[in-house]
Automatic annotation (TrEMBL):
It comes from Mucisphaera calidilacus. It is a multi-pass membrane protein. InterPro entries: ExbB/TolQ_transport, MotA_ExbB_proton_chnl. The keyword Transmembrane applies. This is Colicin uptake protein TolQ. It is found in: Cell membrane; Membrane. Belongs to the exbB/tolQ family.
């Protein structure tokens, strides 16, 4: 019985050259998603102690743990004008949304690479069909068609998995941004009202 790693290697080989960029995109997407999950959980997890300390006005909360809440409120306390307060909020939102545009790019590019692999596999099959006048082995044509289907399926799998992960991250980010807005109103010391 073949191991999972053997099956994966076989799939990559049968999928052709386009499988390598698809594999790279899947590893990159996974790394970005895991980094964002770690960041959001550590820095702004639901009901985090840092959020509580900021809400109750603990001045040491600004330096402990580096939570997104504490950094935002600290920046808002130092803001002298409304435009400075907006810049602080924009910076906080930017830290939260890191890698989201890159994930969108992977969601778009992965199916296109899958289609490219499909085209290359079909071209290979047609070249075999129209090639030499020798007897044609159907398994050779089947290999080109398999390449086409494998790359399409892989591209769609990478895109769909990344899309689901991205939407979970975006939903969590929107909740945190809502909390930041509340903290800005409660703890900014009026800079956002100037």
């Amino acid at each position: 019985m073949a191991s999972v790693s053997d099956e994966l290697v076989s799939l990559i080989e049968r999928g052709g050259v386009v499988m390598w960029p698809l594999l790279g995109l899947s590893v990159l997407a996974l790394a970005m998603v895991l980094e964002r999950l770690w960041f959001l959980f550590r820095a702004a997890g639901p009901g985090s102690r840092a959020e509580y300390e900021v809400l109750v006005g603990n001045p040491e909360a600004d330096v402990r743990g580096g939570s997104i809440y504490a950094m935002t409120v600290s920046g808002l306390r130092g803001a002298r004008t409304g435009s400075e307060a907006r810049a602080v909020m924009s910076s906080s939102y930017g830290r939260l949304e890191r890698f989201i545009p890159a994930l969108s790019t992977i969601i778009t590019v992965a199916p296109m690479l899958g289609i490219l692999g499909t085209v290359l596999g079909i071209i290979e099959s047609f070249e075999l069909l129209t090639g030499s006048g020798e007897t044609l082995d159907p398994t050779d044509v089947g290999a080109g068609i398999a390449e086409a289907l494998i790359t399409t399926a892989t591209g769609l799998t990478v895109a769909i998995g990344t899309l689901i992960a991205q939407q979970v991250l975006v939903a969590w980010i929107r909740v945190i941004e809502g909390r930041l807005d509340v903290l800005a109103e409660l703890g900014a010391g009026g800079a956002s009202e100037r």
